[in-house]
Amino acid sequence: MNSPIALLIVDDENIVRDSLSKWFREDGYSVGTAENAVVALRQMQTQHWDIILLDIKMPGMDGIELQQKIKEIDATATIIFITAHASVDTAVQALKSGAFDYITKPIDPDHLSHLVLNAIKHRALQNENATLKEQISEFLNPDDIIGDSPQMKKVLELTQTVARTDTTVMIRGESGTGKELVARAIHCNSERKYFPIVTVNCGALPEGILESELFGHERGAFTGAQYRRKGKLELADGGTLFLDEVGNIDMKTQMDLLRVIETKQFTRVGGNNIIKVDFRIICATNKDLEKAIAEGTFREDLYYRLNVFTIIIPPLRERKSDIPILANFFVKKHARVMGKPVASFSAEAMDTLVQYDWRGNVRELENAVERAMVIKKNNVILADELPFQLSEHHQYFTSGSLAAMEREHIVSILKQNNWNISRSAEILQIDRVTLYNKIEKYELKRPS
Amino acid sequence: MRTEETVVTSTITILNATTLSASPLRDILHEVEKNLRCSVSLQKHSLDIEKTFDTSRGQYYSTAILTQVMKRAPVSTKCVALVDVDVFIPVLSFVFGEAQFGGNATVVSTHRLCNQFYGMPADESLHVQRIAKEIIHELGHTYGLYHCRNFECVMRSSTYVEDIDLKKSSLCNECWQLFEILSLNNLKKNE
Ligand SMILES: [Zn+2]
Ligand SMILES: [Zn+2]
């Protein structure tokens, strides 16, 4: 939309013209006003108006009559009637005679902006050349997804591939691995990028609240609900709905959600109006959903709806080569926020970072760097300025050491076999007791 | 890109006509300062809010409050009246606030910004965030910024409180660049 949409407000009340023109000017429209039919017709002669808001009751010539005259001058103008509550009948009559829509005073601001946007869309469809479809030529890598390791390159590649489609995506990974960043990257590189990505943290909300959060509610749906409230599903219309911690949704909401995914429509809590929505779903979980299905706490049909395309983000300790890049990135980021000069790490400090286990993943690393930036005395961050010290225990896990290799190998075999000890021991060609001892020695934990 | 060196030094005054306590007010001030890189001060108000009550609607007339603020706003500062009554402009059922476009005065109402109004549990930090976003948004208009289509930009138009939660409290890069130019012009105008 390069040249602004021209909008003419025709109303005999000064105060209505003033407040409406102000409202639309803030939205970037080019606005004109007319206090009666004569002025309105003169305005029609001098320039082209895309949308005309027309008061139905005016002294002299009324809105309906004026509409006919306007159509004679410019048949393409989109006309929206404004009416007081009492004259809805007249408005219906006006619709029959070719008006686009009508609104009653006082106008709900949400309704007004939707109505005008619809009118614009309608016009754009009429003259098809106006539907400019922007081609997505390059992949925008959001600054915060960082990593040079083969594993992260794979994640980025998958992200890029799936962004061009409209498929449902499931992102799996331990907490702190940056699942939301990947979701955002997909959204920002998709055709839906000009619409919102709406995040629902399904783990953080109690059952009843989650329902209202997702579906919204009507005025008076329950005590205290003075006004209707839009749910996240409605807010995501046109865009992406990101369901974080999807494994924590209760059974009832799972069913409601499944229905929305299948029908693309729903009603607000306490309401009957059917609301149609169009969004893409991206969900994330650190839970073993397959196990949850087996235990009967997650619906299998919902699982198949959600698990169409999967991206697995590996934990930080399995891609240690990313740690220095990430650490330096976070130093720059927090230096900027704190208004401090960019610092570097001493060799020992960097070594400590690389060797650490990072159970909290990238988020834990960022917190550690942020804290070090606060307490550091010089421009070089020292090992003892990090929020943790490596226990002696960890000291021989220097990357490249035999112990580190052994540890990493055991971790990957256990993971591949879903922590089945017998099978893993068999593959490793050691007995189960030895495997248990190694698990203890390397402090390995079965992911929850 | 935002450059750290550019500090815009125009001042903003908030005339507080709400019952908000010191701690959330401090957080709101801080949030506005951080995002507009301006110094913000808080002042006792001498507005006659009751005079703007409209009996037929049971709401307060936002433009009338704005007119009072315009009379009180010193030339060189932007002035925000922060009220907790429900405000409207004649054709619309309600507004969150109103600004004098390219001027010095603005009104922001906290009335519809709290969770309890919608039957949701109270959430003070969300409340503070919403108020700060609305103040920043309306101030943006006083500098001459229009609504922005970037869904995370504070200048995006919000017709419902849930829309406010979707956006950030900061200006997007494009709006920020405009803001820097507009606020420099603003300084020159006031010299
Ligand atoms: Zn606005
Ligand atoms: Zn913007």
Largest sheet of chain A: 5 strands, parallel
Percentage of β-strand residues of chain A: 5-15%
Largest sheet of chain B: 5 strands, mixed
Trace the largest sheet of chain A across and list its strands.
Answer: 2-1-3-4-5
**Poorly predicted spans of chain B:** 1-8
β-strand percent of chain B reads 15-25%
DSSP summary, beta strand count of chain B: 8
| Ligands bound, unique | zinc ion
Q: Name the poorly predicted regions of chain A.
A: 128-138, 391-396
Instruction: Provide the structure class of chain B.
Output: alpha/beta
Identify the biggest protein-protein contact and residues per side.
Answer: A-B, 44 and 33 residues
Number of beta-strand segments of chain A: 16
Number of helices of chain A: 19
Structural class of chain A: alpha/beta
Helix content of chain A: 40-55%
The span between the termini of chain B is 28 Å
Average of the residue pLDDT scores of chain A: 84
* Quaternary class: heterodimer
Query: What integer value in Å does the Rg of chain A equal?
Result: 30 Å
